[in-house]
Amino acid sequence: MSEPTRPRSEPEIIPPDRSARPERTRSRRAESKLWASVGSQEGARVYIAKPGPLGIILGAVAVGAVLGMTLLALVGAFLFSLPVIGAIVAALVLSTLIRRYFRALR
Question: What is the pLDDT of residue 102?
């Protein structure tokens, strides 16, 4: 049996307060609480940080806006369906009256 192949690169774990490059000590990476590096390309980094108060407020406003639009769409669909339901009920009542009238003529 052959030996299992080792991965070509291993993940590099650097604590958030340590910078690999001294000239970038005030970078976004130094400010974030958690970051991950994938591969060796500069553009392949993922920064994850806890949201601040403004981020929480904007997130709540976005969720509220989506829920408000959903509620508005549901109310609009309900109001649009009222005349349709009314026309169906009126047609059923009218067909019942016409049927009784023609049965009475027999």
Answer: 86
The residue extents of the domains of the chain are 1-50, 51-106
Q: How many residues does the chain have?
A: 106
Task: Tokens 């769409």: give the residue.
Answer: 73
Distance CA 25, CA 6 (A): 33
d(CA 16, CA 12): 12
Specify the DSSP class assigned to residue 21: S
Amino acid at 59: G
pLDDT of the residue at 13: 76
CA-only gyration radius of the chain, Å? 33
Q: What is the largest CA-CA distance in the chain?
A: 102
Which helix H or strand E contains 48, and what residues bound it? Answer: strand 45-48
Q: What is the pLDDT of residue 51?
A: 86
State residue 104's pLDDT score: 83
Return the DSSP state at 43. T
Instruction: Copy the structure tokens of residue 76.
Output: 């609009």
